[in-house]
Amino acid sequence: MTAEEMWKESGLTGEYEAWSFGDDADELARLVKEGIKTATCSALCFYEMEGEVLPKVGEYSVILDSKDQAVCIIRTTKVYTTGFNQVSKEHAWKEGEGDRSLEYWRNTHRRFFIEELCKDGLDFNEDMELVCEEFEVF
Q: Would you list the domain boundaries of the chain?
């Protein structure tokens, strides 16, 4: 099912974004659909480089898998910025990955950000600002 088809079936109206998670789209979409993953984050510099507006509370997104098929719809419930080294164990738990520990989160996200920043000729920094988002499955 496409994002547009899922949106129409939902009965919701208005604007929505359709996107997939960057590292393992299928697994992370599954975790969201099952209600395990209720948060995500991205580097603030990615938003700035792309000229993208930060997510806002109340916005809807259709989560896609690796084949751009719609998996579920989420509604953003909280958005905040914090340094990579300031991410809380609560946020790590809400991201729902691995053993859900802060240590697992830091190791996985450090690797991800190093790889992604390198593509743009940028270096990872433990103080880098992240945009953290919490959501619920609609």
A: 3-137
Could you tell me which CATH class the domain 3-137 is placed in?
Answer: alpha beta
Q: How far apart are CA 89 and CA 71, in angstroms?
A: 27
**In degrees, to the nearest 5, what angle opens at C-alpha 99 toward C-alphas 113 and 45?**
20
Contacts of 35 (CB under 8 A, 6+ apart): 137
Q: Model's pTM, two decimal places? A: 0.91
pLDDT tens, 86-109? 999 999 999 999 999 999 999 999
Listing from the earlier edge strand, what are the strands of the sheet with 129-137?
A: 17-19, 60-64, 70-83, 129-137, 39-43
Nearest 10 degrees: CA dihedral of 73, 4, 17, 110?
Answer: 70
